[in-house]
Amino acid sequence: MLEFLGEAFALAFAPEVIIFACVGILLGITVGAIPGLSGDMAIAVLLPFVFVLEPASALGLLVGVYKGSMFGGSISAITFGVPGTAGAAATVIDGYQAKLAGKPNKALHTALYSSCIGDTTSDLILIFLALPLALVALKFGPVEFFALYVISLTLVAALTMGQVARGVAAAALGVMLAMIGRDPMTGAQRYTFGMPELSGGIGLIPLLVGIFAISEILVQIARMLQRRRFQQRVTTPAQDAPAYDPSKDKMDWPTFRSTFGATMLGTGMGTFIGALPGAGASLAAFMSYGLAQRLSRKPKEFGKGSLEGVAAAEAGNSATSGATFIPLFAFGIPGSATAALFGAALIMMSITPGPTMMRDNMAIIYALFFILIYANLFNLVASKVLLPVYSRLAMIQPRYVLPIVLGLAILGTFASSNSINAVWMLLAAGVLGVALRWFGVPLGPLVLGFIVGPGLEESLRQALMLGRNDWTHLVKSPLALGIYFGTFALLLLFWLLTRKRNVLTKEEVK
Prior knowledge:
By secondary structure, the protein is mostly helical. It has one domain. The chain has 22 helices and two strands. The chain has helices at about 1-10, 15-35, 40-45, 55-80, 90-100, 105-135, 140-160, 165-180, 205-225, 230-235, 255-275, 280-295, 305-320, 320-325, 325-330, 335-350, 355-360, 360-390, 400-415, 420-440, 445-465, 480-510, and strands at about 180, 190. Strands 1-2 form a two-stranded antiparallel sheet. Helix 3 crosses helix 9 (about 205-225). It is globular, with a radius of gyration of 22 Å. The N and C termini lie far apart (about 60 Å).
């Protein structure tokens, strides 16, 4: 064990890995601070670089982007009232009001500190839970893994906020796309429509980059053409905003202490929700915000610039970052779209996510754990120093950024396979992503369905072979039945919590 830790320490703290992690953090904060761009999109665009970088360097870059974007979304949320990422939507409620009340510096620093606390705590829980859960998962058979796959897709769809039917449809579509190509057992072609280019299936990189990056670029271009410049609406100062006094807007210890309780509430809620497949940072942020308001001594200040509201929302958002990897590392099931992207990166490194990953790749996985921890420190330092600069990034016009992102996406996809067919798949996936966005279908469940699909099919067919085609064999395992029952209980719990959150939201509107 000590040998692996020493090797992992050497990998994680190699100069080039630290440099890539720092570059990733700066890039992530920048992307998160610009409305319309997201950490998922940046990670998707950077996936082809996995082929040309050493595994530790590639993980450092991707982790840095992820960490930076988790906080970066709150910068534009507080400064301009426009969430840079979906997870920062709850931060807008009190963050922008705090800025209008003359407390932008306090709000930004509260978001930064609570984000780093939530993120670090979540990472530590991942480190201490991943290995024990992986050891338990090693005892799973096809029936138990089929139950996990089914439940993961169910949770992904059911926890898609307000879009259960569309979440189910997106997950099913992802599984169907994963089945295109050759049958894994017979080798026969299926769903190729006579096109030899599809005989090898749909590439992981073209699909992910197309769904996340190309579709977002096309949507942003359409918005520019239609002149929907929402920034003009939110960057105009309020008429009744008080004169700004810097001397009253300094972050101090009493302010931090007053928000610490809300930060820990958000951290706990975000870690719990982040560990559930498909729940997502946005749900965690709103749940944390609602819980903090109910337990606060000053609940009436929420929605009017409460720093407790900023702390709870941002801690809940960021606390999902480590927890979302727990099901990926332990069972091979991505906990979110971001975890699916990291799972794809690991697969490209010839590392198969799941219970055997910890055993067969201990050095690189523990190196990843080291990177997760020190990336939070780099994120804290870099964000604190560069806050004045990043708070103005939301003013960058998308027309300057989008062409660069589009070029990188196409170039990286072509370089990953040296095939023009991959570029056509990329563009087709982008068009599909635009269509799904148009009809309000969430993209996360589709990606998770595509990643989980092969394992779901394999475990189902193996379980049926063991049960001699008896479908009741799928529910004869006590462990599988326990998984089904536990998931039903979770769905019932989140249904009740969502009802309370909706009532809370309606009261805030009134």
